[in-house]
Amino acid sequence: MDAFVLSRIQFAANITFHILFPSITIGLGWLLLYFKFRFQRSKDEKWMELYFLFTKIFALSFSLGVVSGVTMSFQFGTNWPGYMNTVGNIAGPLLAYEVLTAFFLEASMLGIMLFGFRRVKPWVHSLATFLVAAGTTLSAFWILALNSWMHTPTGFEMIEGVAHATSWKEVIFNPSMPYRFVHAVLASGLTVAFLGAGLMAYKQLKGDNGPAARAGLRSCLFLAAVLAPLQLFVGDLHGTNTRDHQPQKLAAMEGLWEGGEGVHLTLFALPDEEARENRFEVSIPKLGSLIVTRDLNGYVRGLNAFEGEHPPVAPVFWAFRVMVGMGMLMILSGLYGGWMLLKKRELPRRFLQLLQAMTFAGWVATVAGWYVTEIGRQPWLVQGVLKSKDAVADLPPANVGATLAAYLVTYGILLVAYMTAVFYLTLHAKRSGDVNRKPNPT
Amino acid sequence: MNDLMQDGAWLPFVFAFLIGLSMLLYAVLDGYDLGVGLLSPFAPRSNRDRMIGSIGPFWDANETWLVLGVGLLLVAFPAAHGLVLGELYLPVALMLIGLIFRGVSFDFRKKVAPEKQARWDRIFFLSSLVVALSQGYMVGRFVVGFQPGWVSEVFSIFFGFLVVAGYGLMGACWLILKTEDELQRFAVKWARLGIWSMVAGAVLSSIAAPFVDTRIYDRMFAFPEATLLIAMPLVSMLLTVIMHFLLGALPMPGDRLSAMPFAISVSIFVLGFVGLVYSFHPYIVPGQLRIVEAAAAPESLKVILIGTGIVFPFLIGYTIFAYRVFRGKATDLSYD
User: Fold this and answer.
1) B108 — contact with chain A (CB < 8 Å)?
2) Residue A292 counted as domain residue
3) Is the Cβ–Cβ distance between A181 and A137 less than 8 Å?
4) Rounded mean pLDDT, B286-298
5) Top-confidence range, A47-61, A271-285, B108-122, B263-277
6) What angle do CA A220, A204, A360 make, to 5 degrees?
7) How far apart are CA A76 and CA B121, in angstroms?
8) Are the C-beta atoms of residues A351 and A337 closer than 8 Å to each other?
9) Distance of CA A128 to the CA centre of its chain
10) What is the spatial distance between Cα B299 and Cα B308, in angstroms, rounded to a whole number?
11) C-alpha span between B95 and B100 (Å, rounded)
12) Is residue A350 part of a domain?
């Protein structure tokens, strides 16, 4: 393999590992704030028990997010110098604003949020929790603004092969940015809802049916019941945005080779890139046009209109189906759980087992969705501006291979350690002491 | 000088300064974190939680300075960023993997079953060592302008150990400040070891540096700049002697002067850093790339500078706030 392929695998591995943790911290920050508020209002210790358990999970996720994020900021330089050389004038300020406005805020306030409960006044501690949550979301905003710009670049001009910003408003609020941001934040909310529900179900299955486990499960299931259907709606809007700006990506998602009016919706197929057709296709007539254009006979462009300029079809097609399938499962389980709780019925053991199995369902959906959008942009790194192969560093393949292997081993170890630790903490996290004890005014 | 005022030509220098400042803050702040990590296996097990408790609330924010420094280098001097990180491909990867394990290990050690804690303690020490060594090695490579050949390699590896000694010293001084009783006495002992290995390292590298790279040598003997460059080692020497006697007298009753060793070690670090940077100027990559040649477009730099100007006071403000909240002697950290 050459350095280009290895560098791509390395970056993909890195960002796949990285995105797991922000997708938890963004949503979890707000969930923690919710627990904190419930405690401040009710003084019921079960909320603080939940708060302390989930701050530990937050701390662990945050550390992993920081260290894997640092790695990425270095890889721009080590493996993709062409990226900054071409679009550095756009990407630079957005990345700098992320670090300056969000990253420092989170990192400094995190210490107070984690260890400061007895050291600062209750409202300061709540404020620190709020600032951490706001910081993670702000961080997502800048990163997704840049990522969206790479998909739908606006507000710039090319001078001697280098991008220069003409309007920062257009750079930041580029056409796909609002959709992607809402979609990603909701994805994080869902990831956390199922993480929390899964862990609380695990706790109950292990015989801990205390008030904290019940309240935690309840909060997370209601959150899932609200967010999962909402995500379907937002995801659909994002899809129509993709139709307008990146039709080749949409065609790959649908596995649609030949465009036309009143196209079918493919449910299952094995896309064959050589023959440029689908094998074993199962499809529903007209539904494709209806979903994409809101019209049974609407016109949808196919992959053949972009021959040589469209992404590899099979990975995008399959990643899209994994994401949607996982989303459907989340909607069904969220609605079922919410309905059972509203009816004040005991949740069946089987359902708790399903929830435990779905603890990391959000990760699967998030990563699959990320693959859809990122692989769907290929062969471009920045749509219409810079191709991936033109940005890669000229490195000895052996060096890239060595670092790739080292990263993969590292990520493998840490992923296993993280998942083990999360379940371990759920059962063994220290019960909160007397949380109403006065904070120490040291 | 008129050129500098036009077209934002002064911007690259402002950014070079900000990058230097971020890197210095990183080296000092994460330096003591890493130093505590380096010292962690030498303390009795009963004291280890306390040691790690002394850096727990701070390390996240400390590491962020590295992200800012490298980020600013990336955005303000993309050419230099690509050149430096391309040259340092393998040590950078080694440092990053070290940082990954260092960052997570002291989170994991308290969140796993007790029998696994010792494993994460070992990882914490080893990864701190890997980070310190690779950072020192990279500084060494950078100083010699990435010259190939065994002389510069040995020089760079030597720099790696120098940084290990430096971080160890700062970690020990941090512990003198933040702990008491047995652990504090240990820390005093470590600090004495650290300061003299630093002196030995600094003397050796000062002797070796001109032979490896004649540019530094030329500077040292070019008046009037030379006075400044000679003054710095002298001040450092003076500080070292003060430190030596101070450490002999610590700990004092009432914990007097327990902050002094940390202040002195930071001062020595700052002096060394300034001396190093001064010997590079006006290059951003020694001998290869000048500051002005490597800079990004002025309009983008302006946008970042405005943001930096607005955010910086807040940043300093809540950093100070966080340090105030956790001032005083460290306790075993607890989340509740």
Assistant:
1) yes
2) no
3) no
4) 74
5) A47-61
6) 50
7) 32
8) yes
9) 24
10) 14
11) 9
12) yes
* Residue A242: pLDDT over 90: no
Q: Which residue on chain B is closest to A393 by alpha carbon?
A: B86
C-beta atoms surrounding B66 within 10 Å: 22
3-class secondary structure, A104: helix
* Number of separate domains in chain A: 1
Amino acid type, A54: F
Q: Strand, coil or helix: what is A254?
A: helix
**Cα of B118 to nearest chain A Cα, Å:** 14
User: Per the domain annotation, does A435 fall within a domain?
Assistant: no
Tokens for B144? 């010699």
| Residue A9 belongs to a domain | no
Structural domain for A369, as ranges: 23-259+301-428
pLDDT tens readout for residues A380-422: 889 888 888 888 888 888 888 888 999 999 999 999 989 988 9
Half-sphere exposure for A319 (CA within 13 Å, toward CB): 22
Residue ranges of the domains in chain B?
13-296
Determine the topology of domain B13-296 in CATH.
Formate dehydrogenase/DMSO reductase fold (1.20.1630)
- Cβ-nearest to B335 among A114, A403, A421: A114
DSSP H or E segment with residue A340: helix A313-342
Interchain CB distance below 8 Å, B68 and A406: no
Strand B283-285, strand B289-290: pairing: antiparallel
Predicted local distance difference test score (pLDDT) of residue A434: 43
Angle at A208 (CA atoms; ends A205, A214), nearest 5 degrees: 90
- The span from the CA of A172 to the CA of A178, in Å, is 10
